[in-house]
Specification:
about 70% helix; mainly alpha; globular
Length: about 300
Amino acid sequence: MNLIISSIPTILMIVSPILITAIGGMICERSGVVNIALEGLMGIGACACASTHYLMEAGGSGRYSLVVALLIGMVISALFSLIHAVAAINFNADQTISGTGINLLADGVTIFASQILFHADRTKEFRIGMTTDALGLYPTAYIALAVVLIAWFVLYKTPFGLHLRACGEHPAAAESVGINVRRIRYVGVITSGVLSGLAGGCIVLTQTIQYTSNTINGRGFIAIAAVAFGRWTPLGVTGAAFLFGTAQALSVIATNFPALKSIPSEVFNIIPYAITLITLIIFSGKDYAPRASGQPFTEARS
């Protein structure tokens, strides 16, 4: 039992970025736009955050660098999410292709930016990241909790949340009562960009000390799976993120358990992706997605 309790901070450290990103993806899809660019947006945010933190730390402004770095990561990722928003909402482009394009673009842009700033294919290593509290928890755990609670409150307790859900279920009906569907969908896409950038920053400030092309390593795609497995609800997405995140944490905490030490580490690296595929197959016949998710919307002409 002591071993399990001691593993909780590590599990929460790995779960938190997945959960934050998944909540952003859920909000985006609830508005009616599918966003498979979460992986790329996390990478953009992580690169921007790591670069900002290193440059501020090197320049003697380390006192505020963590907060500023996270904000910069969120802003840059949000700006990149606008590419997907314009393509999907204004030009009615295929949302899967648009998201895939951003994922591919992110790989090139982050490496190019690192080459310009640091003359390498990765950012420089910084000295100090986030520190844990008395319970051994990183601030990212509390950030993730706040994101879930705020998302639940906004979606189910505010008029805006009702409008957003209506745009994902029946945009024509929403427009007929005066709701600006395009504006709502823009908010949904940008929110997913902001939260993905925040999650990417959380990863580099807790789990690594620099950004590399392998930093995100599929977490954005796991977050997409968590949205579907969680049935597009904050509580369900939270449970799914914990399932997938805990599976991913096994590769880190396995050495703490004598019974697992003899198992090759590669097995634990495979587990989260295997669980993702299995759960998606099991629930593939059950359609809980917003009915208009992924469908282009054209405003009615008077």
